Amino acid sequence: MLLKTTDFNLKYTLECGNFFRYFEKNGWYYIATADRAFKARQKASMLEVIGADRKFAASFFRLDENYSAMVKHLSRDRHLKKAIEAYKGMRIVRQEPFECLVSYIVSQNSNIPRIRKNLNDIARLFGRKLKFDSINFYAFPKLSQLAGKKLKECRLGYRHEYLCRLVHELDLKRFYSLKKVSYEEAKKYLVSLHGVGSKVADCVLLFSLGFDEAFPVDVWIKRVVENLYFNETPMTEKAVHDFGRKHFGKHAGYANQFLYYYGRSLK
């Protein structure tokens, strides 16, 4: 299936650090998300997708939004303008909320190779096999499937306790209904969960629940905001978070991702 795209870059979208279950092989990106596996590659403005239909691909890669208006708005900021010019076409993929929540609980104080391994181990041990292109992929398990001693085999360290508690604490109906409430109410519920702090909550809100005003703060975002906007003055994570949400407004999440990608290139 071929999709004609504008202002879209598959490489930047998948490699910007907010999605983990993919790998690149022979020019194709192989992607596992929720209960499906598919592959995609891009040549100029044409996106080729095998294993997923047009509707899903457009939603997953957020090709159904007014991207040009968003980047025009953000480009009024001179620092963001440089970041957008450097990584034009980067999108924030729409992740399945429960998988996203687990991903960011697992991601704490970790690195991308380890996060990928942990998530792939969780899917392999608890999810059903998805054979695609002669490669074994695995569906991400449901909440009820995560219980049991096998979780220890994933070697999650202290994050193991967080997931065990999540199995008992998470109200799935309420969790999935967060899309319909305010940012403040949704975040309040997420941070009430054991092992979910402000940064993890904002990642889940931004990457899976549709809150583009969320502004996750990690060491990279803190550093780039301090350097670009405050002349390297040290700030608290809360101060960086509050600045990001106020300064960038309804598109703070996209500003965050452009700054994250751009900031890492400046290290």
Write up what this structure looks like.
48% of the residues lie in helices and 13% in strands. The chain has two domains: 2-65; 66-267, Endonuclease III, domain 1 (Orthogonal Bundle). α9 packs across α10 (198-207) and α11 crosses α13 (252-265). By secondary structure, the protein is an alpha+beta fold. The chain starts with a strand and ends with a helix. β6 and β7 (135-138) form a beta hairpin.
Layout of strands and helices, then pairs:
Layout: E1 2-4, H1 10-15, E2 22-25, E3 28-33, E4 36-43, E5 46-50, H2 54-60, H3 67-74, H4 78-86, H5 97-106, H6 112-126, E6 129-132, E7 135-138, H7 159-169, H8 172-176, H9 183-191, H10 198-207, H11 219-229, H12 237-248, H13 252-265
Antiparallel strand pairs: 1-5, 2-3, 3-4, 4-5, 6-7
Helix pairs in contact: 4-13, 5-10, 9-10, 11-13, 12-13
Say what the CATH topology of the largest domain is: Endonuclease III, domain 1
- Taken together, the total number of domains comes to 2
Classify the secondary structure makeup into a structural class. Answer: alpha+beta
**Biggest sheet features:** 5 strands, antiparallel
Shape: globular
Order of helices and strands: EHEEEEHHHHHEEHHHHHHH
Distance from first to last alpha carbon: 39 Å
CATH class of the largest domain: Mainly Alpha
Number of helical elements:
13
Q: What portion of residues belong to β-strands?
A: 5-15%
Q: Assign the CATH architecture of the largest domain.
A: Orthogonal Bundle
Total strands: 7
CATH superfamily (homologous) name of the largest domain: Hypothetical protein, domain 2
Integer-rounded radius of gyration:
18 Å
Largest sheet, spatial ordering of strands: 1-5-4-3-2
Mean pLDDT: 94
